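dumping this here before i forget
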Amino acid sequence: MKALVVYDSTYGNTEKIAQAIGEAIAAQVLRVTEANPSDLKGFDLLIVGSPTHGGRPTPAIQDLFKASPALKGINVAAFDTRHVSKWTLLFGYAAPRIARSLKGNGGALLASPEGFFVLGTEGPLKEGELERAAAWAKKVVT
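structure:
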């Protein structure tokens, strides 16, 4: 299975999760600014991740969906990094919105959107999250 992980990261936590996912399933890993939207169709699996900003993915991830071709026939999955605060409890998290966008572009969602926890706004990642990300990725591809 030819897989691609596209992510954005503000403080480096989402990048670490994306790398762990990519290593677990031997996927190509690209920061969203390096991803060419027209190339997304060349993969069997597309996993997209972002930190949660105001309940949403970063603007760069949102722009990717606006520029992306139809994803019909491509398996997709979504993840985010998050921390629990009164604002995230009010506004939600990025992964479900990413998943809706992927499905809206025609992708076939393989797994429920997943969130990985950071301690505070800037991190670090909660202990065990890299291992949990690798295990989630393996579950996505089975």
